[in-house]
Design goal:
Strand order of the largest sheet: 3-4-5
Number of domains: 2
Radius of gyration: 22 Å
Strand content: 5-15%
Length: 270
């Protein structure tokens, strides 16, 4: 099954089935226990650094790109990924890609048929396309395959980075300086865990069915959905109580907000 013929099944994702991106690339869904073991070996911050290579976009890395002399508005996410892929170690990405060594891929220019020509043209010039390729394994990552990988992992963790463009050199410099100050402030703060408050909040909630040790077997997508579902349940319950008590005017509230079984929509998807 190729990436162009495959679609992300949220149902399969919920049950933790591996995702066949292409004939030779498979993404495995980590469990909470798997991430805990990763934390023991490498640290949680290293996990997020690795993950951000797949989840992040040019806006996420604009400070790094700017310091490299690259305008984040002038580069694609795939081109960014081609710069970052060499930083990935197989022992770090094993939790997602098994024994596939992504750092062994190099950028190549491939000649592909030009499908933009008209029917009247007998022959059209092939166009050039950048790919990431491992000649030894004969595995290639096209921009389409990369987009499938990024979308799948973003969906798995419910993280969709915002896209910010800027016009004018002065505006761009102002944005970069603000990013630099934010980075400096972030380094001064104590190291905290992203997963701990989520796990702790769920385990302390009466409606959460898993006990702490049982969480080890839960896939990350199911867990992240559980976090969102509990938030929806609490907000819906609060609305219903407010409605029946007469403290809330429900005329301007979407009826869907009163259904705790409604579909979960990524709040930060852009």
């Amino acid at each position: 099954m190729t990436a162009s013929n495959s679609k992300i099944s949220l149902l399969q994702l919920y049950f933790g089935d591996p995702y066949q991106v292409s004939d030779k690339i498979t993404i495995f869904q980590p469990t909470i226990g798997g991430i805990l073991e990763y934390d023991k070996q490498f640290g949680e911050s290293e996990f997020w650094s690795m993950l951000n290579v797949f989840i992040g976009n040019t806006t996420s890395y604009r400070l790094l790109l700017w310091d490299m002399g690259i305008d984040w508005n002038e580069i694609s996410d795939f081109q960014l990924f081609s710069l970052l892929i060499k930083t990935l170690k197989v022992e770090n990405t094993e939790i997602l890609f098994g024994d596939l060594d992504l750092s062994s891929f190099d950028a190549y220019i491939k000649q592909v048929p030009n499908e933009e020509g008209t029917n009247d043209e007998k022959e059209s010039e092939p166009k050039q396309e950048m790919i990431l390729w491992n000649p030894e394994l004969d595995i290639e990552i096209t921009e389409e395959i990369y987009n499938n990988i990024a979308l799948y992992i973003r969906t798995m963790f419910n993280i969709f980075p915002k896209i910010e463009k800027a016009k004018g050199k002065t505006t761009k410099k102002w944005i970069i300086e603000e990013d630099r100050m934010n980075l400096a402030n972030a380094k001064k703060e104590d190291t905290t865990s992203t997963f701990l408050p989520l796990i702790e909040s769920c385990c302390c909630h009466a409606g959460f069915k898993y006990k702490k040790n049982e969480l080890r077997e839960v896939g990350i997508y199911e867990f992240m959905r559980s976090v969102q579902r509990l938030q929806i349940y609490e907000s819906t319950t609060a609305l219903l109580k407010g409605m029946y008590s007469g403290f809330i005017d429900t005329k301007g509230i979407d009826k869907e907000e009163f259904d705790f079984m409604r579909d979960i929509k990524p709040a930060n998807k852009k």
